[in-house]
Amino acid sequence: MRILLIEDNERLVRALEQGLSEEGVAVVHAATAAAAREQAHAAGLDAIVLDLGLPDMDGMDLLRALRGERLHIPVLVLTARDAVESRVAALDAGADDYLIKPFVFAELLARLRALTRRAGGPRWAAVTEGEVTLDDEFGVRSGATRVVLTPREHAILAYLLRRRDEVVPRVDILREVFGYTHDPGTNAIDVHLAHLRRKLADLPLALDTVRGAGVRARVTAA
User: Fold this and answer.
1) ω into residue 102 within 30 of 0, thus cis?
2) What are phi and psi of 13, to 5 degrees?
3) pTM of the full predicted structure?
4) How far apart are CA 46 and CA 80, in angstroms?
5) What is the Cα 3 distance to its own chain's centre?
6) 75 Cα distance to chain centroid
7) Confidence check: pLDDT of 80 > 50
8) How many C-beta neighbours within 10 Å does residue 46 have?
């Protein structure tokens, strides 16, 4: 499981990062709403844990903004706001679950597992670049042609398309898509890229490997 933790309390962040990592959960952290919006669209995530008391924007407004951007990842609100009205407002704004601080770590973990089970695995928002559209059902299409990808292939392509025409270092892909904080020497990226190139052969999309630099996604002439 890979989650985005949106929380500005550093002490709580450290505790959650340690506890979740021990349970095999990779954590991407954002302390502000601005950072969270960037991370939410850049990373292949299974869930988001959202604090409502952020320094630059109310978490409720951030939640509405993310849902307005068609980000369909399950969201667990984690907050000290215990009023019924707050819980109702958060759920109506697009939250999938609501947990009040202080909380028991085991319950947080169980709720995250339940959310990702119900979601059927990770989901990513749609991406449209030129003549190519990546939808949120693991498909990529151009005109009448649509190709179905695996979730991992979809996550890689979504990330590369959001950085279209930029040479993206392999370490960025490993971090944002695979959840590695270092390069473990795996050839997983090369394997997935090879599969992607075969599947995308009939679409106006090229994935270039720039030796020693990274990978670049280009929308080509149809």
Assistant:
1) yes
2) -60, -45
3) 0.57
4) 24
5) 8
6) 11
7) yes
8) 21
23-39: pLDDT as tens digits:
888 899 999 999 999 88
Q: Are 196 and 203 in contact (CB under 8 A)?
A: no
The 10s digit of each residue's pLDDT in 144-190 is 899 988 777 888 888 898 888 899 999 888 877 776 666 767 777 88
Rounded CA separation 71/63 (Å): 10
Do 215 and 207 touch, CB atoms closer than 8 A? yes
The answer to whether the beta carbons of residues 220 and 204 sit under 8 Å apart is yes
Q: What are phi and psi of 146, to 5 degrees?
A: -130, 135
Q: At 205, list the tokens.
A: 């999309």
Rounded Cα–Cα distance for residues 79 and 93 (Å): 15
The predicted structure's pLDDT at residue 78 = 95
Angle (nearest 5°) at CA 133 between 129 and 135 = 135
Contact 73, 45 (CB under 8 A): yes
Residue 137 φ then ψ, to 5°: -120, 30
Burial class (CB in 10 A: 0-12, 13-18, 19+), 40: buried
∠ Cα 50 65 205 (to 5°):
105
> Angle at the Cα of 70 (from 66 to 74), degrees rounded to 5?
65
Quick one: pLDDT at residue 51?
A: 97
